[in-house]
Design brief:
With 621 residues, the chain is of the alpha+beta class. The protein folds into 3 domains: 208 residues; 217 residues, Beta-galactosidase, Chain A, domain 5; 180 residues, no CATH class. Helices cover 18% and strands 31% of the residues. It is globular. It starts with a strand and ends in an 18-residue tail after the last helix.
Length: 621
């Protein structure tokens, strides 16, 4: 199975295995645009922090953003156009050290400044795939609920600026436009959460003091008081900067109420937790209140392509911790956006008796941490996959929430989410499909399919011995199964393609290889309007002038279907080309067509095994 690197997206990889395509679809970014300007080919993300002892900076560049983190805790986030630096007072010169309390730290992607805000109150910085995240962790109850930091903006500004004596209060995502249109810096919506999995929103206050811009994180005091009522309590609050507006739309929407039906049937959540590394899903009763968490997992599956037929799919989730006797059901949601989870998504699903896309799994049956739980989608689930759009999956607790049975105990699972470090624990949707007709993908697929490709004489290592040594096959453009059988050996394809050295490379890098495929100078270049071919390669339109002109010949020919059912011999094919060259002047050089015809005729009866290594087709067409 070979990855088609040119079909990477920020969130997916696509592979080809014969006539089948396989896609690994993630929610968060797994690739970034390479190069100094972040506009190059998509490469794998690696946010490992590199330390420079001279500058005393930790830095990362292999992501959609660049960042430098100072030894004493100052943080600078930037893209190619602007930057945002935030500094917190550190009079004791506490130095950052690798953080072993998270997977990011264990992989060299997280740092901690212990006791920076006081005993048991730490700053943590994590270089995540899609964002640079600062977390303040409180392991004992703080005597304050505000954290004051200074801000420095370079080539970036506020859409609405704070003024002296007039603070700017922000409780949602904030955008800092930069000097380059579209290259903004985003400060994502902050949250605070605790050891019980409870989550509430946090506000930022921006103000000016002596010409210096400050930002204050305000943690609701009531949440602090609620958290530190038992031993082992802790609280964390985040702020994240990103190059992209979206944080990944996965996470939980939570509702709690003293009445079960009210909590279950509510239109909106009390809070959402999105863009985290792990997220608790809990359905329980505590202190007379019922709590329901619903998980949302949206995927961009447009990379599959219109017309494809999905044959199998597996939704993969990994747990971190769990407790109790709950079950989990896979459902479809109507989440408003795949890049953001909002409180209004809580009821964007079928409340009662929802169709389920896979067999339920109970907590007792879940795989251990480090191993995926595979939910193989059934026919219902497969029908939810949108091949040219977004696929929106969700997880609900089955025995209580779906079945409408009020809990009398506690039960929960922590799922890994899209902002977990690396990609090996990400929520993932693995899809297998065959290409649909009338697309470029279908054309590529047909080049690999034995049953179809044997009918296209322009593919393969060679018009093999058995193809031409038998004179009965001379006029059969289907040639034989041997063409594709030899072609399927990829290691041999590139050097031995009968239609030019770069045929397969062409299909992997179409925009660069148009002129290198030999039939690109014959059967494809005649289409003249390459942009139309790229945008809509359907037979009769995308392949342009000739297919339109000889519609009577090609009218029922779908990509991957045989030429032989329409053109009964190679000679007839050449005649068609010659005719069209005469009808549409300038499309073909008739002498090249004649050379092509003569070459085919002269070589049909030869033993061609190994011959095509020495034949330079590019000089003949």
């Amino acid at each position: 199975m070979i990855e088609i690197a040119q079909r990477r997206t920020l969130t997916s990889k696509i592979f080809q295995d014969g006539n089948l395509f396989h896609g690994n679809f993630h929610i968060g970014h797994i690739h970034y645009p390479s190069g100094l300007s972040k506009d190059g080919s998509l490469s794998d993300i690696d946010t490992t922090l590199q330390y420079n002892s001279t500058s005393k900076l930790f830095s990362t560049t292999k992501a959609s953003y660049d960042a430098e983190v100072g030894l004493f805790g100052d943080v600078r986030f930037h893209n190619v156009s602007g930057s945002l630096a935030v500094t917190i007072p550190n009079l004791s010169k506490i130095e950052g050290v690798p953080y072993s309390g998270s997977a990011f730290g264990l992989l060299g992607k997280g740092l901690i400044w212990k006791d920076l805000l006081g005993t048991g109150m730490h700053q943590i910085v994590e270089a995540r795939n899609g964002s640079l995240t600062r977390i303040f962790r409180f392991e004992q109850k703080p005597s304050f609920n505000e954290i004051d930091m200074t801000v420095d903006l370079t080539n970036a500004t506020f859409a609405t600026k704070p003024k002296a004596g007039k603070d700017l209060i922000v409780s949602d995502q904030l955008v800092f436009p930069t000097s380059t249109a579209g290259k903004n810096i985003y400060l994502r919506k902050p949250h605070v959460w605790n050891h019980r999995g409870e989550v509430v929103d946090v506000s930022f206050k921006f103000y000016l003091a002596s010409g210096v811009l400050h930002v204050v994180k305000i943690i609701p005091q009531a949440f602090i008081d609620l958290t530190f009522t038992e031993l082992g309590a802790w609280l964390e609050t985040d702020d994240s900067n990103s190059y992209y507006a979206d944080a990944g739309g996965d996470g939980s929407a939570s509702k709690w109420h003293s009445d079960w039906s009210t909590a279950r049937g509510a239109n909106t959540a009390a809070a959402v937790a999105a863009g985290g590394s792990t997220q608790i899903q809990r359905v329980w009763v505590n202190a007379g209140e019922y709590n329901i968490d619903r998980m949302f997992f949206p995927f961009d599956t447009s990379g599959i392509g219109a017309g494809a037929t999905v044959t199998a799919a597996t939704f993969k989730l990994m747990r971190w911790l769990s407790s109790g006797t709950r079950t989990y059901a896979i459902i479809q949601t109507t989440q408003a956006s795949i890049t953001a989870l909002v409180v209004g998504d809580y009821d964007n699903l079928t409340l009662n008796s929802p169709p389920e896309g896979a067999t339920r799994k109970a907590i007792v049956d879940l795989a251990a941490d480090g191993t995926y739980n595979d939910f193989a989608l059934n026919a219902t689930g497969l029908g939810w996959i949108i091949v040219d759009g977004s696929t929106k999956l969700g997880v609900r607790e089955g025995s209580k929430d779906v079945d409408n049975s009020a809990p009398t105990d506690d039960g929960y699972v922590y799922w890994y989410c899209s902002n977990q470090t690396g990609t090996d624990k990400d929520p993932r949707l693995d899809v297998t499909w065959t290409a649909g007709g009338g697309t470029l993908e279908a054309l590529v697929s047909s080049m690999w399919t034995v049953s179809n490709v044997v009918n296209i004489s322009s593919v393969g290592k060679g018009f093999s011995k058995s193809s031409f040594s038998n004179s009965n096959n001379e006029n059969d453009p289907s040639i034989s199964r041997n063409i594709i059988l030899s072609s399927n050996e990829l290691s041999n394809q590139i050097d031995n393609l009968s239609i030019g050295k770069n045929c397969i490379t062409f299909f992997n890098n179409l925009s660069n290889q148009i002129n290198d495929i030999s039939i690109g100078k014959g059967l494809i270049e005649f289409a003249k309007n390459i942009s139309e071919f790229l945008l809509n390669p359907t037979v009769g339109k995308g392949q342009s002038i000739l297919f339109n002109a000889v519609s009577d010949v090609y009218s029922s020919m779908s990509v991957g279907k045989s030429f032989s059912s329409h053109i009964k011999s190679i000679e007839n094919l050449i005649l068609v080309l010659q005719t069209e060259a005469g009808v549409i002047p300038g499309i073909f050089d008739i002498s090249l067509i004649t050379q092509y015809r003569d070459f085919l005729v002269s070589t049909q009866k030869k033993d061609l095994v190994g011959t095509f290594r020495s034949v330079d087709w590019t000089t003949r067409i």
